[in-house]
Write a structure and sequence with these properties.
By secondary structure, the protein is of the alpha+beta class. It has 19 helices and 23 strands. Helix content is about 35%, strand content about 20%. The strands form 5 sheets. Strands 1, 2, 6, 7, 8, 9, 22 and 23 form an 8-stranded mixed β-sheet that branches. A 6-stranded antiparallel β-sheet has the order 16-17-18-19-15-20, with no helix packed on it. Strands 11-10-21-14 form a 4-stranded antiparallel β-sheet. α1 packs parallel to α10, α3 crosses α4 and α13 crosses α15. The longest helix has 23 residues.
Length: about 600
């Protein structure tokens, strides 16, 4: 065995997976087609957003890297949904893309126990296993395009849009995962040949234009707020006896808002036959909640305009990102409809918009700890599992890295509940419900979102990170002191009926954000207690195990649809089985009775 763990892909999932595995003592190899592109932001130059900001802070609470990377490289910070309830508020920051990429590469290269190699994985080394729950046996390593055979006990696939990727710009197409970057060819074909359920998905990105060619007077300016840390450990100098710095010392670069026009829509409609999306060249399903501009125009004919958010690509360049104008139309059509938008009449396209189609692994073929049901020791994370977004990828990456390490130790995997984290909702949705389109996290997907506020991620998950070994002594001590401080604030609150951020000298020593957090906990205490009672009722089913090898076809009394769905998903618990579409209440009751008869062990 050359390595304990091999991670395929240097994107946001691959970064978190490789860092987590190596920090947990695994000798790890990150294989990427181009080390210069580790941490590249392929699309939107931003981290966070609604529910996505929660994911970033949860990754940080577990001991991941993404929050620290954006803290180092943000050029604008905002909290979205300020006018709404705290359960749906979340931080978002524009990033200097090149600085983010550089910081990500430094983190990977400076990590002890982690090596980087430039190559392309084309197949796996598979050996027989004594386990009867894995169809193909267990993984033993990878084979690369240059003919290398590298042994490993665990492999994490995090190939993003590069797995058999293909880009489209009008009539032009090329085997690329990003514009100008060759796709990872061979591995998708290998996996299909071994019976893995792969499908095709499609996503896209808008054009980038030269900033000096835009007329900002015709657009609405959108400034950021005072920068705050994404990482709970952002200000390491903080002492509970004095207030910490307010946030990272970073620039505040404005964004701009403009709108499409009826002329824009007419140009798109008159050229829709030239779109590979509507011409049949693209077969993969696209993102429902982040559609291309031609999709928006065709699907919503009654809308006379759509938002266009103009965002800086970074301090190193004058390129501007046209958020909302993702397209696969030919370049001449792109130029025409962009010039029909106020402020962009003379905009010069630096990089065209394009669509990308790629292979993904049906996440129903994964256990809730992101290990394959077919191949022991093979994990998958990120867009390869059918999700979209940097944040969703990072969340899966850290979970795959953690669970690869736990498996190597012979320990139980880490599976977060839907009441514990947005990460739990994300992974449960993918592995229980599956997806046929790029999955995007929303606050509405989390039934316990009031418990999953972004400001509570550390108290929810830092102990988890500490238990697996990703939270070191210094950070744990700072976290412990914060918990003590929060208890003190609660005691002061109990003595004051109406606590405010400036309600006395006793509170002046504490950050206003911590006081605000206690205020929110008190304000929504009744709702929170109600949520906890619901969770406690459901916990009974979540703690009853189902054996992966259960023969559902032989169970008398199950509905035929339930048999088929249960055989596909092979749920880990009765609670997970209850969330599978098509499994009825009667089926769940029967599973509970059978599990009790078989003396199923309660989950730890």
């Amino acid at each position: 065995m050359d390595y304990h763990c091999i991670v395929i892909g240097g994107g946001h999932a691959g970064i978190e997976a490789s860092l987590a595995a190596s920090r947990l003592g695994m000798k790890t190899l990150l294989i990427t087609q181009n080390p210069d592109r580790i941490g590249a932001m392929s699309c939107n130059p931003a981290i966070g957003g609604l529910s996505k900001g929660n994911l970033v802070r949860e990754v940080d609470a577990l001991g991941g890297q993404m929050a620290e990377l954006i803290d180092q490289t943000m050029i604008q910070y905002r909290v979205l949904n300020r006018s709404r309830g705290p359960a749906v508020q979340a931080p978002r920051a524009q990033a200097d893309k090149l600085a983010y990429q550089s910081a990500a590469r430094r983190a990977v290269e400076n990590q002890p126990g982690l090596s980087v190699m430039m190559d392309t994985v084309v197949s796996f080394i598979i050996e027989k296993s004594v386990s009867h729950t894995h169809v193909l046996g267990r993984i033993a390593g990878v084979c690369t395009a240059r003919g290398r055979r590298i042994g490993a006990a665990a492999v994490i696939l995090a190939a993003g849009t590069f797995l058999e990727g293909k880009i489209f710009i009008g009539g032009y197409d090329a085997r690329e995962g990003r514009l100008g970057e060759e796709a990872a060819l061979g591995l998708g074909t290998f996996l299909r040949g071994r019976g893995f359920p792969l499908g095709r998905l499609k996503t896209g990105t808008p054009a980038r234009v030269a900033g000096e060619t835009m007329d900002y007077e015709k657009m609405e300016r959108q400034d950021g707020e005072r920068a705050m840390y994404f990482s709970f450990d952002g200000d390491r100098s903080f002492d509970c006896n004095q207030s910490p710095a307010s946030g990272p010392d970073r620039p505040n670069v404005p964004c701009w808002i403009t709108y499409t026009t009826p002329q824009t829509h007419e140009i798109i409609r008159s050229n829709i036959h030239r779109s590979p999306l509507y011409g049949g060249k693209i077969t993969g399903a696209g993102p429902r909640y982040c559609p291309s501009i031609e999709d928006k125009v065709m699907r919503f004919p009654g809308r006379d305009r759509h938002h266009v958010f103009v965002e800086s690509e970074g301090l190193y360049t004058n390129e501007m990102y046209l958020n909302g104008l993702s397209s696969s139309l030919p370049e001449d059509v792109q130029e025409s409809f962009i010039h029909s938008i106020p402020g962009l009449e003379a905009a010069r396209i630096v990089r065209p918009a394009y669509a990308v189609e790629y292979d993904y692994l049906d996440p129903l073929d994964l256990y809730p700890w992101l290990e394959s049901k077919r191949l022991e020791g093979f994990f998958s994370a990120g867009q390869t599992n059918g999700s979209s977004g940097y944040e969703e990828a990072a969340a899966q990456g850290i979970m795959a890295g953690i669970n690869a390490a736990l498996k190597s130790r012979g320990e139980e995997p880490l599976v977060l509940g839907r009441d514990e984290a947005y990460i739990g909702v994300l992974v449960d949705d993918l592995t229980t419900l599956g997806t046929r389109e790029p999955y995007r996290m929303f606050t509405s997907r989390a039934e316990h979102r009031l418990l999953l506020r972004h400001d509570t991620a550390d108290t929810r998950l830092t102990l988890r990170g500490r238990t697996v070994g990703l939270i070191g002594e210094e950070r744990w001590e700072r976290f412990r002191k914060k918990c003590e401080a929060l208890d003190t604030i609660r005691e002061l609150s109990a003595a004051r009926k109406n606590i405010t951020a400036d309600s006395g000298e006793e509170l002046a020593a504490f950050p206003a954000e911590w006081v605000q957090r206690v205020m929110l906990d008190e304000k929504y205490a009744g709702y929170i207690e109600k949520e906890k009672r619901i969770i406690a009722r459901n916990e009974k089913m979540e703690r009853v195990k189902l054996a992966p090898e259960t023969d559902y076809a032989s169970i008398t009394g199950l509905s035929s649809e339930a048999r088929e769905k249960l055989k596909t998903v092979r749920p880990r618990t009765v609670g997970q089985a209850a969330r599978i579409p098509g499994v009825r209440q009667g089926d769940v009751a029967l599973l509970m009775v059978l599990a009790r008869k078989r003396s199923a062990e309660p989950l730890p």
